[in-house]
Specification:
By secondary structure, this protein is an alpha/beta fold. It is built from 15 helices and eight strands. It has helices at residues 2-60, 106-113, 116-126, 134-137, 152-171, 220-232, 249-259, 269-278, 285-296, 301-315, 320-327, 343-349, 353-365, 375-390, 402-416, and strands at 73-84, 87-97, 102-103, 180-190, 193-202, 207-215, 241-245, 263-267. It has a five-stranded mixed beta sheet, with helices on both faces. A three-stranded antiparallel beta sheet has the order 1-2-3, with helices on one face. Strand 1 (73-84) and strand 2 form a beta hairpin.
Amino acid sequence: MAKSRTVIRAYQADSAHAEQRRPVLVDVLHDTRATLLELAVASGVQVLHAMLEEDRTALCGARYAHQAARDVHRAGSTPSEVVLGGRKVPMRRPRVRTAQHEVPLPTWQAVAARDPLEQRMLEQMLVGVATRQYARSLEPVGATIPTRGTSKSAVSRRFVVKTAAQLETWRATPLDGLALAGLLIDGVVLAEHCVVVALGLDATGRKHVLGLWEGSTENTAVCQGLLANLQSRGLRTDRSLLVILDGSKALRAAVQQTFGPAAWVQRCQAHKLRNVLDHLPDAERPWVRAILHRAYRSHDGAHARRLLQDLARRLEPRWPSAAASVREGLDETLTVLALPISERLQRSLATTNAIESLLSRMRHVQRNVTRWRSGTMVLRWVAAGVLEAAKGFRRLKGCGEMPRLIAALRARDQELGLDSASPQVA
């Protein structure tokens, strides 16, 4: 027993000693980490400086070597900044001059041609880092290395510049190289602004964010402005295209004005189901939902139409508004059932889930914004959000059946006498 107590006391003494050592070790590790990061930044500056000196030697020759025909010479150095680790770090940049002007160094031109600071900052904002927290999100480099460009105002200015340039470039991108089979359009409201976004589905099932337009509400003029912009950039409106919409009358009118008979409209079945159920009390919803699901999941369009018409007749005596909602746009909710494609692809094309998912991701990106100052700010943020979401795009489920959808669209062109001079899309 005495021996056991001795062992226990020895263990307790070692534990106490370990507890005393632990804070010291943590401090040492923290200091070592900071020192290593500071060393990495300093080494990066030194490597860049060595590369610039090699450029200067290639232009001017070796230092102190006499060259009679030399027309360029060393001109000392000048204070400059380079981006390392998401911040600006000062350095001395070597200079080369002729008698008339300064000669740029190739390495410095390559470094200056990119703007990694703006790109790093943009990515930090899009993953949810607030402008005030940007500096904290970066790895520390030590107190001995002066840095710049991480303040709230600096980050905000760069974000505005980067997103404005991104928006301008995107809205000017030509679309004539895209062979689209489907088009989805939906809107999102931010503060007092409504932004309408268009998503395209190409012949291989890939998704492409095509453009956006801003207005006060989702009215026909705003939707028409978006479609006119897409048309001016090369979107074809002279041959059949599957257009997937929610129940917005403004969107439907704008599509009709732009595409005319070329628009093969599919009304979102998920929106229609919610609209019908909203007209019913809770006790009536389960059986109505079951019939709607049975109709929409039927592979036979005629059978689905009979189910929906019978449902409307059953609802008419007690719930006329629900019956009217079932009948409204009934045929357009069943457009995909007439297509010779697999049930899996039919389900993918029967709803606006693809663009709803895109807008949901966009809302997540802009969750830190508390005040929308203008429509331009809204457009910049929406563009940044949807382009960030586009990085995670996957092909449409059932995309292997897309050639059959394309064949059905081209057959419809012939039936309606639409343009058939363009080559067939495989």
